[in-house]
Amino acid sequence: MKIPLAKEGYIFIIPLGLVAVLFLALSLPWVAGFFGLGFLFVTWFFRDPERTIPDEPNVVVSPADGKVVEIVAEKDPILGELCTRISIFLNVFNVHVNRVPIGGKIEEVRYNPGKFLAAFNHKASLDNEQTIILINNGKVNVFVKQIAGLIARRIICWAKQGDSYGVGQRYGLIRFGSRVDVLLPQDTQVSVACGDHVSGGRSIIGYLNEP
User: Fold this and answer.
1) What's the rounded Cα separation, in Å, for the pair 115 and 58?
2) Angle in degrees, CA 154, 90, 116, rounded to 5
3) Which of 37, 105, 151, 200 is deepest in the core (most CB within 10 A)?
């Protein structure tokens, strides 16, 4: 069975696979096994499964796989509007491909340098290195933050200012454990709670109350 993989993973997968085969050919099974385990881990880490995207009106889908760890009110970092922030923690076993929570146009992409606190630390939402996108669907603004963690030191964002995306479409990934925040208008009907496990592009986390 073919496993869909994010293309960014091949720079890790192919070398580890070749090294494992090389040491096996040299009759060094223990060394080959070590690199073989690494090959299996990164292959699993960079999996990119297809998802059935909900098509309900005004739906907001999760931008990432993981666990909801915080739901709070705060101002967004671009326009200064008061929003509801939903934070999702991704461990190393979650799918790390990120998806846009609503369809719309990318109005801004902003990179902020910062720290590398553990992604489950709530200070990470403000203090850690992150890339923020602002999506507008013609009526409301939604913000998504890709946040680096203690192990995740590489944020990849394919979205560019002016691009148009459909709800649940892939727009980037974060390598090796991280956090993703989505900031929604305050009057959004949130449909998740802290402790819930969500799937990117598939789980509904809320419904917009569009003007």
Assistant:
1) 35
2) 45
3) 200
Q: Report yes or no: 110 and 78 within 8 Å, Cβ to Cβ.
A: yes
Residue pLDDT, tens place only, 113-136: 877 666 566 676 777 788 999 999
Distance of CA 95 to the CA centre of its chain: 8
* Residue 4 DSSP symbol: P
Contacts of 70 (CB under 8 A, 6+ apart): 85, 86, 87, 122, 125, 194
Whether residue 178 lies in the annotated active site: yes
Q: How far is CA 50 from CA 97, 113, 144, in A?
A: 11, 31, 21
**What predicted TM-score, i.e. pTM, was given to this entire model?**
0.85
Those residues whose C-beta lies under 8 Å from the C-beta of residue 47, and which sit 6 or more positions away, are 3, 4, 5, 6, 95
Beta bridge partners of 108: 134
